[in-house]
Design goal:
homodimer; DNA-binding; two-stranded antiparallel ribbon; 139 residues; 7 helices; mainly alpha
DNA sequence: CTAGGGCTTCCCCTTGCTGGAAGGTCAAGC
DNA sequence: GCTTGACCTTCCAGCAAGGGGAAGCCCTAG
């Protein structure tokens, strides 16, 4: 299989696949003309990578997951550990975004959004703190 | 004020402030020895930037917000527009993360996490689709 | 035999900084 | 007067995770 085929199969752009080879995630063979030649197992790995990335795992996580995947002797606890840590990061990220969202929604709500220059959004960004006093006042 | 002072005031690292000058967000003066000299207004802008960034606005958004902030003739609608678009992006991001979270939580839950190699997480990453059939089966 | 599509490498661009090296400046202490 | 240490300066490199595009092979069809 050439890179185009495996790209179509895995859903990953060819650029990405070359990049993954660069950083050592896959090691396709080369045919006489210099083209990369992908085996079934390479295609399989790439699909695995695509799905791991889609779940938000970092490249380094993917590298570790892939190694565990290939290791028949692995303990599922190792995999679970990685997944749980990732889950935690996701939760943190969600919490952070929700906090932004809340503040921002509040400000958007308070802004008339008309031709006049008065704007609570700018006023808030310009003034000192998002402290407890302000939280109380705006609550 | 030197960069250290304004860094302490704004809570931004000196590196970041230099970067903001690089990309034209602030334009401090220079004193005879070559040191940057920040006016009150610069400090104020940097604080504004810090708060905008904390709300997740991109640098380009910040640039626009800052311009609107400085423009006494602005229409609050313009500000609101930017904020609303950002709010939308945040909502999308949250939705995306929640979906990842759901899938991942499901897998983590199904994994024994012991010394044995059998692992539903790897099995899922390795196999074909997250399609409707699978959603039904795992629901 | 030429056109096209696919493949190769290479290097720069992105976002928003962060770290570090090499060196100038300034105030304090001896 | 000299040193020490904390500041400050510039520039260069790099992170994640690729994307864009140039210059140049390769291969096949008409």
């Amino acid at each position: 299989m050439n890179i185009g085929d495996v790209a179509a199969l895995s859903g990953l752009p060819a650029k990405t696949i070359r990049y993954y080879e660069d950083i050592g995630l896959v090691k396709p063979l080369r045919s006489a003309n210099g083209y990369r030649t992908f085996r079934e197992s390479d295609a399989h790995k790439l699909a695995f990578l695509g799905r791991s990335r889609a779940l938000g795992f970092s490249i380094e996580d993917c590298r570790n997951l892939l190694a565990l995947y290939e290791d028949e002797e692995r303990a599922s606890a190792e995999v679970k550990e990685i997944a749980e840590q990732h889950l935690e990061r996701i939760d943190e990220k969600i919490a952070e975004l929700k906090e932004m969202r809340a503040t921002l929604a509040h400000l958007v709500d308070a802004c008339a959004g008309d031709h006049r220059p008065d704007c609570p959004i700018l006023a808030d960004l310009a003034t000192k703190q998002h402290d407890e006093e302000q939280l109380k006042r705006t609550a």
